[in-house]
Amino acid sequence: MTTAHTDATGLDRYAARVDAVLAQRTRLRGPQPKADLFAGLPADHPLLTADPRRPLNANLQILASYVEPDDVIIDVGGGAGRVSLPLGLHCQAVINIDPSAAMGAAFAADAAQAGMTNVRFIESDWLSVDPPTGTVALVNHVTYFIRDIVAFLEKLERLGRRRVLMTVISPPPPSYHRMLYPLVYGEEEVVVPGHVELANVLWELGILPDIRVLPLPPPLPWVAARNREEAIAGAVMAFGYEQWAHWPIEPTLVQRVRAVVQARFEDLFVEGTDGITPRWLTPGHEILLTWQPTG
Question: Does 173 sit behind a cis peptide bond, omega within 30 degrees of 0 on the bond before it?
């Protein structure tokens, strides 16, 4: 028996993984709506509200250690500025480039509440915009679905000419419910590229980043439930966001997830002193990849 030989590169594998995830998501959840996926979030949603003047936690302190007073941070896909606005208190300016108008409104509101005037929001996709040049390119939890990762990285290096700061979570948050996935759909979930796949791409491009595991684990997308029904409802809602399908979950899928969770409740959940939490959610690590562009 002969073994098939493949010349696939890390770049090829990265693109293929993104294609496979999107193909699976489209087949099982339908195509992504064209509307702003975050337009329906309540004003007090955690994705939209974060005080820029809050004390920096250990992870943000490490990011801030790379920022200098005269830096202009280009925040790529920065959402409401949960990370870049606190850093903006320590540098010259922050320019947030994100395609969501809802996120832009929240970014402006959070900055205004903090009395920050050194910020700017550009509503656009990163690969489509012609933004001003900065000194630091900041990318937090954005790369999981970037198929043209080379163009994405090359643009980062051009416009964040002093340093690139990029964080991803392991395991990747679009696949937090990958253990529940086969129980609902009858097939394994294709998981988005994470820090390993990203590092392989960078190495192939001749970029040797510093890779740091940040000290604080990322918060899990779950608030301990007070009772069985609340836990089931939380599981249905959370599963609807799997593979970042941030649009309304279909009634038939609601019924399917609910039936699975009800039937396997004791296997899927654990009850502790703080309430009921899923067994399938595992604590992750936030990974920082950072480097200085060479030209």
Answer: no
Q: Which domain holds residue 214?
A: 10-176+189-221+282-291
pTM of the full structure: 0.93
Distance of CA 159 to the CA centre of its chain: 21
- Examine residue 235 and state whether it is found in any structural domain, yes or no: no
Rounded CA-CA distance 58/286 in Å is: 11
pLDDT tens digits, one per residue of 199-257: 999 999 999 999 999 999 998 888 899 999 999 999 999 999 999 999 999 999 999 99
CATH of the domain at 40: 3.40.50.150
229 in a domain, yes or no?
A: no
98 within 8 A of 129, measured Cβ to Cβ: no
β-pairing, 285-291 with 160-170? antiparallel
Please state whether beta strands 275-278 and 285-291 pair in parallel, antiparallel, or not at all (unpaired): unpaired
